[in-house]
Amino acid sequence: MACWVEELDFPRLEIPVTIDGIGHVLSDFNLAAAHQGTTLYLSNLDDMIGVRLFTPTVYFYQPQGDEPVAQILRDALTKVLVPYYPFTGRIRETENGKLEIFFGPNQGALLVEAHSDVPFVDLGDLSVPNPAWMNLIYRFPNEEQYKVVDMPLVIAQVTKFTCGGFSLGLRICHCLCDGLGAMQFLSAWAETAKAGSLVVNPKPCWDREVFLPRNPPKIQFSHTEFKRIDDGSTLAKTLWQGKPVQKCYRMSREFQARLKILAQTGESSCTTFDATAAHVWRCWVKALDVKPLDCEHRLTFSVNAREKMRDTPLKDGFYGNALCVACATSTIESLVKGCLADTSRLVREARLGVSEEYLRSTLDYIDLYRPKRLEFGGKLTITQWTRFSIYEAADFGWGKPIYAGPIDLTPTPQVCVFLPEGGAEPSGTMLLCICLPEFGSHGFKELLLSN
Question: Which interval of the chain is the signal sequence (predicted)?
């Protein structure tokens, strides 16, 4: 059974990176003249506190000879930014803290060219996300964390290595798109690079007004996911006791299937996500030895609301945020002493609780209260990337990337990510990335393997 879960190591290193050039990327069409002075509405799902950030990802590619990869990426981006013109604008804050996109002079996306005087082999295993790769993502000097106002909405860095391989470090503003929307944009960029001419399928659709709040607002649910929890447990102290470290585990398809079987009850069936999320939640709390047992703890995760929109279905090509935050709540005692099936049932109920009515209530809740800070106390957040075809979407004509995905979780150690594993053919294997203090990591692995 041990082979079903494998801990993956990555080296602690510093990657030397030299910036060779920084330039704005405008579209083939004169968007500045066409849209200058206009604005675009962002829905309350686009500008809620949890998405006011950039999502950093990195993609590694094998050597391509003397092919001018940076120029190919730049040329394709100029074409894609015509139908995806909102990415050329900037975000500003309006009254009551609401965000909107505006268009003005000297905007556009940003493309950075860089090089590193090391080969890929010095970076270790490129299939395992490593916080050391952050140098491959461009950040402005003294940039504030979570800053989105007056920032380029697409920031790309192409870094060439001495072996001929290269990386694409990408930051896309989450306010414009959720994960599925980002894959749609990335795929259009990649297909355009391969074809040498604009390819968009489906045609991008903005249509954020479909998520306008109601007047008067009608809040039908408690929306615990946005509320602060009075965390009287030892969780925060334990997690930060010593610097949290990022750990990665490879979980085979067979192991995930085994969890799903163990999590089933006679009353209802669960999904692989329900079972795996419940198992990770329980293991994390146990490994951190959270006390006291009567404290409440939350598990939050995003649910794609596209398929929930029965009364007002979204148009094909919609790439905005269409996510609701589901929240499962349990006492520490139930997580530690209960069974997997019980915890899995809580996850399932939270997931199925997201409906079109829940989404509309979320929009109204945000409009009325507009939460100002991310609440990490007393909870674990799981982000599921296994539903994204990120390796297929990022094929710019150079084959699938060696690795595609996020990099560093340590700034938000109460966030866990489920990632698809790369490779020529999908195997169903999942990478679990999570943060733990060093003293809890061994116990966590043992707990993962236990029933």
Answer: none
